Amino acid sequence: MLFTPTVIRNLLKKPVTRKYPFEVRAPFPKYRGELVIDINKCILCGLCSRKCPSQCIVVDKASGTWQCDPHACVYCGLCRDNCPTKCLSMKDTHRKPVTEKITWIEHGNPPKPKKMTVASKAEPEAKVETEPEAKVETKVEAMPETKAEATPEVKAEAKPETKQAGKKGKKSGK
C-alpha cells in the first residue's frame, strides 16, 4: 500500500532513460572509444602489443600483419600513447554492438632495412682488419718457432719451477 502512489506517479511520468539504438548520447570530451590504425604509417615494431595490458594486439613483422581483438580491448589507450609513429588513434564514438566475435586484421608492409653507404662500409672494415693484425703480431713474437717442440719443454720447465717456488715460499714463511 505504501508503494501504490509511487508506482502510479512513475507510470504517468515520461521515462528517465534513453531509447538507445534510436537516441545516442554525445560522447564525453577526451573519450577513448574505438581503436583505429593507419596501417600505411605503421612500421610493425610491436611496441603496441608489448604495452597492451589485455594482450589484445598481435604484431607479426615477418608476415606484415597487425591483429586486434576488439572484444578483449579495455580501451586504456596505452598502445596509442606508446606508438613511435603515432599510427594508432582512438575515435570518440562507441563500437557498435555485434552478434558474433570478430578479429580485426590489417596487412601492412614492414619497412625495409636501410642500406649502408659505401663510405660507412669502408670505415668499419678498415678498423676490423687493422686491430686483429696488431694482436696477432704480439702473440707471434711471444710464441716459440715450432709448437710441437716448444710445448712439452715449456710445460716441463714450468711445472717444477712453480712447485719449487711454492716450497721455497712455504719454508721461508715458517
Give structural attributes.
three-stranded antiparallel beta sheet, single chain, 174 residues, two-stranded antiparallel sheet
What would you note in describing this structure?
This protein has 174 residues and is of the alpha+beta class. The protein has helices at residues 4-12, 47-51, 78-82, 118-142, 147-173; strands spanning 35-37, 57-60, 65-68, 88-90, 104-107. The strands form two sheets. A three-stranded antiparallel β-sheet has the order 2-3-5. The radius of gyration is 37 Å and the shape is elongated. The N and C termini lie far apart (110 Å).
Portion of residues in helices? 40-55%
Query: What is the averaged pLDDT score?
Result: 75
Largest sheet: 3 strands, antiparallel
Give the CA-based shape: elongated
* Strand line-up across the major sheet: 2-3-5
Q: What is the straight-line distance between the termini?
A: 110 Å
Our Rg estimate from Cα atoms comes to 37 Å
> Are there runs of 5+ residues with pLDDT below 50, and where?
126-144, 146-159
Task: Provide the β-strand percentage band.
Answer: 5-15%
Number of beta strands: 5
- What's the helix count? 5
